[in-house]
Amino acid sequence: MSPMVKIGIVIVVLLVLLGQPAFVINEAEQGLILQFGKPIRIIQEPGIYLKYPFIQDLIVFDKRILVADARPAEYITLDKKRLTVDTVSRWKISQPLEFYQTVRDYRGAVSRLNDTIFARLREAIANHTFISFIREERENIMNRVAEETAIPAKQFGITLVDVRIKRVDLPEEVQNSVFARMRAERERIAKRYRAEGEEKGREIRANANKEKEIILAEAYRKAEVLKGDGDAEATTIYAEAYGKNREFFSFLRHMDVYQKIFGEDTTVLLRPNSPLMEYLDTPFVGETSVRKVLR
Amino acid sequence: MDQFRPRNDDHPVREIQKGVEDLKALFEGFFRGRGLWIVILIVIILYLLSGFYIVQPGERGVVLLFGKLNAITEPGLRYRLPRPFMDAITVDVANVRRAEIGFRSDGARTRNVPQEALMLTGDENIVDVQLIVQYVVNDPMKFLFGSDNPESALKASAEVALRGVVGENTIDFTMTSGRMEVQKKVEIYLQKLLDTYNTGILVVQARLLAVDPPAQVQEAFHDVVRAWEDRERLIKEADGYREDVIPKARGMAQQEIREAEAYKAQRVIRARGDAARFDVLRQEYEKAPEVTRTRLYLESVERFLPNTRKFIMEGGDSRVLPLLPLTNLGNGPKQQPSSEESPSSQMKGKQ
After folding, report:
1. Helix B218-287, helix B289-304: angle, nearest 10
2. Contact residues, A window 66-105, toward B, CB-based 8 Å cutoff
3. Which CATH class is domain B97-213?
4. A145 contacts in chain B (CB < 8 Å)
5. Nearest CA distance, B232 vs chain A (angstrom)
6. Using an 8 Å Cβ cutoff, are A136 and B88 in contact?
7. Which tens digit of pLDDT belongs to each residue from B263-300?
8. Which phi and psi (to 5°) does residue B180 adopt?
9. Which of A136, A205, A219 sits opposite B241 (nearest CB)?
10. SS (H, E, C) B276-332
11. Do A255 and B300 count as a contact with CB atoms less than 8 A apart?
12. Which residues pair with A41 in a beta bridge?
């Protein structure tokens, strides 16, 4: 074997030996170095580091924000309603040493965290009614659960970022009663709309009728005034004309009335001495005066 | 076995050995000279060339030196030291990505995902919501190293935000007037969560695609829409009635007033006519009252007496009267009906 090949082999071996103690911690990682199982060094800055081969071990942890997605669990509210709540928490490993000593790894941390969150959330939900939990207190409850969970989490070397409620669902049978209530609610609204239509419709019709009556009455009033005016004016004209000779008017009018009131069903008893019969008995000139004398 | 016979007389094994030795000599000659150095040089050059990388348009390169952030590079052909010294990761920062909540689009079709879509509202109703979130990576460093799986964090956070906001409001608000507001709130809430989680994601838009009642109650909701239409119809019908009645009434009113005006005018004009006639007659009468009076009297009598049944009796003797069968006289002469209505009746006007 040539010396060149030998040199090459030596270089490779050296690289491997040097490479063994050198290691890289990147931006997403942090490390813990154990010497015979005893933690001696924490590395949280990214970069290249050295360790003794064989006697020292490196454990790498995530430095990013991690997620613990709990399985949906059932809770009971103050007003005894059952709810299925799905929470998700986010956290990061801030103290790799404590983390390693208490929960060991990611899975251990998730199960410890979820246990704590479950217990705290159970208490919090049990203190609230269903509607206040859904509507007003959701944010507050989440914050409080997060605060209460953060304290034990710290002992695990964990910094809790937050706890969020992902889903809140009702159990199946409750869901059906919600649907029934929703239907009833919609039916109520539908009825109201129809009744309102009826209401407004009747109102409009009644107003129209009212307006119509007013218009007609007003017209009647105007008409009567006009007719009265006409009658009055006519009366004035008649009075003025007839007033010039009352006696003649009376005569003419009587003649007129006679003509109107005498008909076929009228029986007239005429006395022979009435002025109409004047010439019946005395057709000759002078007789009249004689009769007058006899009388 | 003829074909396996060697072409010359030399032993075949010896031939192979000779060939191998020749090759060995060649290699040894090569490596003894500059050959080895050339190989080493080529290997080193190839190794160094592996440091080139391309940042595509719309991407950023995150360059790490021993795992530590060294630089963020713009699009183009870039160089870094080869591994294990340096590394570069490219991240697409221009592409608008989308996440779907409550449904999954599969080509042209979409599929509802009820466990994501159904959620409780603030008034204890259940609503079916579909949300689409459009986002970009605005901080490649955080996107890579801030959070574990930022895109799944985005999806989970979108659900948190959506359910949180929907839970604060009533079903009617979310479905109708408050839709835009809900959308905006979800966007803000989601962005806040994403910032807290160091995801390096910027929400471009959170858009509510559908806010519907769940299938189980859809019919009742549709009926509300129909009821509203009924309401409008009833009102319109009543309006129609009004449009019909009022003008007619106005017409009738006008008619009555005009008739009254006509009556008035007619009365006055007729009165004037009657007055004028009377006046003329009177003047003539006053010239010769006796004669005129007798004439008028007789004319009048002549006109009305023919139609009547007449008895001529002695004056003053009223004792005869009870014997007259007055009631039976009705079926008397009818030869002259009422056609005798004289046009020259004196006072027709006053009627």
Report:
1. 130
2. 66-67, 69, 88, 90
3. alpha beta
4. none
5. 6
6. no
7. 999 999 999 998 998 889 888 888 888 888 888 888 88
8. -65, -40
9. A205
10. HHHHHHHHHHHHCHHHHHHHHHHHHHHHHHHHCEEEECCCCCHHHHHHCCHHHHHHC
11. yes
12. A33
Q: Where are the domains of chain A?
A: 13-62, 66-176
Q: Which two tokens stand for residue B169?
A: 């409001």
Residue A239 contacts residue A249 (beta carbons within 8 Å): no
Q: Kindly provide the residue ranges of all beta strands, DSSP E only, lying in B162-296, ordered along the sequence.
A: 201-212
Other residues' Cβ atoms within 10 Å of the Cβ of residue A106: 15
> Quick one: which of B336, B341, B333 has its CA closest to B310?
B333
CB pairs under 8 A between A and B: 354
Is the CB of B122 less than 8 angstroms away from the CB of A193? no
When the candidates are 2.60.40.1930, 3.30.479.30, 3.40.50.300, 3.30.450.40, the CATH number that belongs to A66-176 is: 3.30.479.30
In chain B, where the domains are located? 2-92, 97-213, 216-302
What is the overall mean pLDDT for chain A?
87
List B residues 131-170 in contact with A (Cβ-Cβ < 8 A): 141, 144-149, 152-153, 156-157, 159-160, 163-164, 167-168
pLDDT in tens, A18-37: 667 788 898 899 999 999 88
Taking every pair of Cα atoms in chain A, the longest distance, rounded to a whole number of angstroms, is 203
Nearest to B126 among A166, A175, A237 (CB): A175
Measured over the CA atoms of residue B28, residue B33, residue B39 and residue B44, the dihedral's sign is positive
Tokens of B309: 């049944």
**A32 touching B (Cβ < 8 Å):** no
Taking CA atoms, what residue in B is nearest to A23?
B66
Residue B19, judged by CB atoms within 10 A of its CB (0-12, 13-18, 19+), counts as exposed
Would strands B309-312 and A267-270 be described as parallel, antiparallel, or unpaired? parallel
CA of A239: which chain B residue's CA is closest?
B275
Query: CA-CA distance, B323 to A221, in Å (whole number)?
Result: 56
Whether residue B338 has pLDDT greater than 60 = no
Could you tell me if B10 lies within 8 Å of chain A, comparing CB atoms? no
pLDDT at res. B59: 92
**Residue contact A259–B342, C-beta within 8 A:** yes
- Residue from the list A25, A191, A276 with its beta carbon closest to the beta carbon of B67: A25
Long-range pairs of A13-22 with CB within 8 A, sequence gap ≥ 24: A17/A53, A20/A53, A21/A50, A21/A51, A21/A52, A21/A53, A22/A48, A22/A49, A22/A50
pLDDT at B337: 41
